[in-house]
Structure of Aminoglycoside phosphotransferase domain-containing protein:
Amino acid sequence: MKKKYYEVGNSFIKRTLRQHEWMITATNWTPSACLPQRWKTDAAILVYLGEKTNIPLPRLQHTFEDDGAFYFSTELVPGVSMSQLTEEQKQVVTKELLEHVATLKSLRSDTPGVPGQTLLCAPNRVHSRFWKHHTCWQPKPDIEKGSYVFCHNDLGQHNVIVDAETLKINAIIDWEYGGFWPEWFEQPYWKRKGPSAPFGGEEDDRERCREWLLAHCVEVEMEHLRSLKEKLGGGSYSSPRSPIFTSLQKPCHQKEYSLSSRAVHGAGRCQMPTATLMHKSGGAGLTGLNLAC
């Protein structure tokens, strides 16, 4: 398991695993440290494409970090995956999907990247066999100008949500590998059921993708998120009965700190909690440090 998923009311939420939740394996496997950046990419793309196109998208709600986990929340999209349809129904959906692919290709840039972000997250197929498993990519500052098109890079049937009755696309989801890339990065995996990676007699472009990344980008090794306890250098938690209040006591030049987690209500809906470290005694120290991103 790499992440957790929740459906809460009209929200779809996913979060990274905290380190104590990782599965223990013989190979010491760990989830990719790139997940938070991938979801930041997804969020930035939802905003960008929402302003630039009429492509159906889930509505972004929140992204934030809390106590060693990163959260990504969108409006829950009704419908079924394109992969669940009959072949005849898929042909109807494909006609609309190709219109949206054409819209993406009409968006162009002379440099690769994601609007509002400094890093690129390579398509999942590129990281097969754990190649550069924890690496994101920053385009080199002297990269040659070119013609880059907007790609989804995980556009399989599983990421196309459809109204089962009208066969209209309700949303295209999971944009975490998207951005401006060489056009050939976008492979037509929507033509068949299965993962967004080559199999059978399909073209295997993974080595070509890797060569392009190494030639045109700088590797950025990502680090796993740390819990609040780890950020403060150790210490122990004590948990009162109240589910929305947790106190943390740790010596720091004889000053006392507490951690409060408060649920914020707005527009009739309980939003995700934020965590704030509050300094309880006078003098220098950490005062009002907001630890939720």
About this structure: The longest strand covers residues 60-66.
